[in-house]
Amino acid sequence: MRSIESIVAELPPSSSATAVVGEGGGGWLYGWLVECHGLWHNVLMIVPSALFVLYLASQAKRSFSKVFNDRSHVVAALYAILWLVSIFNLAWCSLQMWECAPGKQFVWSVISLFTTSGMLFLEVSLIAFLLQGNHASGREALTQTFLISALVVGLDMFLKGIYLFGFGVQLFDVSTNGSQWALWVVHKLLLTGVYGVIFFMCRSRWRERLPARPAFQNYISIMFCLNAAALLACALAAHGDGFGLWLYDITVICYHAMFLPLLYVTFLADFLQEDDLHLENVYYSEMKDAGFFDVDWE
């Protein structure tokens, strides 16, 4: 009768690995949460994304009623796209183990491409819309905004598709220190440049051309710092620096866990608030535009 050791030695590597994982305590749950990037990475990605989707679901009834009863086509479209991208982002964050699974590389690349492109579409749409001014609304503004976003994101997806499916470069597999970093450096450089220009415009004599909203300026500042850190991380990782890989991982976690809630708080929370508070803000804005607060009380 053969010993157990001889039987295990003849098993395929995948079978042995599966047995070890199962004996290690956890099975598929252990592999889902711990393998590839580690427990804390996966938790920090999944939990905020799941909580944000649950929050959107809890506010859905009131938000849908307010969005579709209002005349702002831009806000309605933005809210619908936010829902779609949030679901894609939650799926992407929940399937991190596919990045390290050899048989899932194609599926991982596809879902990563669509998720990052959807989030980039929101970024470009918000910048393009807000740069039109405070009173931009209606179908014309929506058409112009989404046309710009579609062109930018379409070009971005086309270039990434060439890298992924033309040259076989695994853009979304950070474990390989290869030629994907050149594209990411260019990508982050462009985003950092755009946010940097707007960041300095907010603090210069050209700030009157931008919407006078502190929330918008805070959003630009946060995104500028995040993209600048990601640019530094990609540049270091391109030279094989381990700190660059660690910093890039941190920026990815921050982006996928916090960008969508930041977008919601900055641009949609005020619009979707309770009617009484919303009307109070409207009255305040009308009084301010009428010059009521310009009276010298001294």
Automatic annotation (TrEMBL):
Q: Where are the transmembrane segments?
A: 39-57, 77-98, 110-133, 145-169, 181-200, 220-239, 245-269
Q: Which residues form the signal peptide?
A: none
* Top-level lineage group: Eukaryota
What InterPro entries does the record tag this protein with? TPRA1/CAND2/CAND8 (IPR018781)
Q: How does it sit in the membrane?
A: Multi-pass membrane protein
A GO cellular component annotation here is: plasma membrane
Record carries keyword Oxidoreductase? no
Q: What GO molecular function annotation could you give as one example from this UniProt entry?
A: G protein-coupled receptor activity
Which Pfam families does this entry report, sorted A to Z?
Tmemb_40
Q: Which UniProt keywords apply?
A: Membrane, Transmembrane, Transmembrane helix
Q: Where in the cell?
A: Membrane
Which family does the UniProt entry place this protein in? Belongs to the UPF0359 family.
Name of this chain's protein: Transmembrane protein adipocyte-associated 1
Q: Which organism is it from?
A: Anisodus tanguticus
